[in-house]
Amino acid sequence: MRNNPLSLLDTHSKVAILSHVSPDGDSLGSLIALGLAMKKLCQGVYIFRNDLFPEKYKFLPGYQQVEAYREDCQQDFDFCFVLDCGDEKRLGYSEVILKRSKKIINIDHHISNTAFGDINLLDTEASSTCEIVYNLLKDFGLALDVDIATCLYTGIATDTGNFVYDNTTAYTHQVAAELMGFHIDLHKISYHLYQNKPLNSVRFLAHVLNHMEIGFDGKVAIIAIPEELLKKFNVLSSDVDGVINYARDIQGIEIAILLKESAGGEVKVGFRAKKDIDVSLLAGKFGGGGHKKASGATIEGTIEEVRKKLEEQITMDLGW
Amino acid sequence: MRNNPLSLLDTHSKVAILSHVSPDGDSLGSLIALGLAMKKLCQGVYIFRNDLFPEKYKFLPGYQQVEAYREDCQQDFDFCFVLDCGDEKRLGYSEVILKRSKKIINIDHHISNTAFGDINLLDTEASSTCEIVYNLLKDFGLALDVDIATCLYTGIATDTGNFVYDNTTAYTHQVAAELMGFHIDLHKISYHLYQNKPLNSVRFLAHVLNHMEIGFDGKVAIIAIPEELLKKFNVLSSDVDGVINYARDIQGIEIAILLKESAGGEVKVGFRAKKDIDVSLLAGKFGGGGHKKASGATIEGTIEEVRKKLEEQITMDLGW
């Protein structure tokens, strides 16, 4: 690799590592993996979080080394590595660290990345940011260990939906094979990711699947979640967002829609498509955006009003 | 590989290929993959099924070449390859083919395999029978193609729960990488395996998760399915068996139990364990058996009576 950004570092470098708000397996996995690796290279490495560290991912080795950035600490950095983050706004309150860093290194696999870094290492063909970090470390000749491999495997597995989504390539499996060679505990990873679901989130899933509505001759599934339902089941935002995939995965469904009532007379809308429909266009009609198969928008109105607007738009755009 | 059984064949060999009843991704994938490969070696290759071919797997290339065995056909075979099948009884009505074959080649990865073949190629370390078939074909130098690779990948993916279960190894990922190198259509495979669920099976899942009972201080989940529920939702047996995994995957649950009422005053019971509990012992107390983490038994009585028996046994054995 020409210009491997790790070659910029020396033992005295002060480095910040950041990722996006609402962290997921790939952002946390790449954040910690790169952090643990860099700590082998230089003394002043700080791994920052923007949000509470999700309970689900506290099995990741080294998670205790992830710290909250305190705005009053007046710390400056030689380098700031930003991982898995399409633009600066998604950094939340740690965006301020960018201004305190001499050089920003932006490492990501999202096609929407705005190339906001001084150095931009963008690989939209990579399954995940963890796959890019793996390439970086291997290219630099930095020895991996079981902790780093566990974090990288977790990010790759979660961002590919366990090697199911279209971003999975032969190379993704090859990297997974090499990471397993470091004797990671797959049983432990699987347990924490998939076998440790809170009972209330499972009851919540059952409730919404029971009340899901199917329309447009079986082509559209709509799940509506009034605010009081979240309180009733006491579920996390991540539990809510996941249910839309169950609607998408039904035979014949081409568009799945999640309507989440939020404060201020707005509804947060999630769209998922399975085959040929481009739901980023649909979201775009309401000021939102995203990918072809997964997009979102925030729309004013009650759940009923928003549902009606969406149904009219679908009829108009698709002739259904 | 010493004694690769493929070296027994010549162009005039008559070969039958069989697998177990209640077919799954690994049995069908290995059956068809080996069949398609052998058809490159000899003229008389017959791929037999014992059951209706499941709708879900009709995307497998070459599935039309799988035929029902007709007892009146009086056909004899030089070789019978039996795949993914622990013992002869699991062959259903095609068990008769064994008697009409000069040599039985038994290829499997189940630890419970009774070694009923003349040649037994048993590898309990392999993730799946498809992984063993891959090794056989590669060792023999037989060129794979996209159809064979699609079948093998499907079997490996389904038998490992998408690379999640403990049978997944570094080598499993390596094989998956090599199979993807044949340009298989992962999107199509994923769509048919995971994104094409009948609506009634999703509504059924919602219903049973809603009515699931939790006992023993949150350590045991019980799902009871009376016969009339199956009729009400019009679901397949495979839809029923899958729901137990949702119960197992709940935080704190150590044993998940599925009670399925069946004709004749019996209840078919499925057990799943997550960590240290060995549910094959529990099943054994009721004349059943299986693996440490997945077992089953058939118990006389109504659902209520069977539940009571099980609860008493759990208290006795585990002190809960």
Set down the secondary structure blueprint.
2 copies of one chain form a homodimer.
Chain A: E1 14-19, H1 25-38, E2 44-49, E3 66-68, E4 77-83, H2 96-99, E5 101-108, E6 119-122, H3 129-140, H4 146-159, H5 170-180, H6 186-194, H7 199-211, E7 213-215, E8 220-225, H8 227-233, H9 237-248, E9 255-262, E10 266-273, H10 279-284, E11 289-290, E12 294-300, H11 303-318
Parallel strand pairs in A: 1-2, 1-4, 2-3, 4-5, 5-6, 8-9
Antiparallel strand pairs in A: 7-8, 9-10, 10-12, 11-12
Helix pairs in contact in A: 1-3, 1-4, 3-4, 4-5, 7-9
Look at the structure and give the CATH class of the largest domain in chain A: Alpha Beta
Shape of chain A: globular
Uncertain runs of chain A: none
- What oligomeric assembly is this protein in? homodimer
Number of domains of chain A: 2
Protein name (chains A, B): DHH family phosphoesterase
Pfam families (chains A, B): DHH, DHHA1
Organism (chains A, B): Clostridium formicaceticum
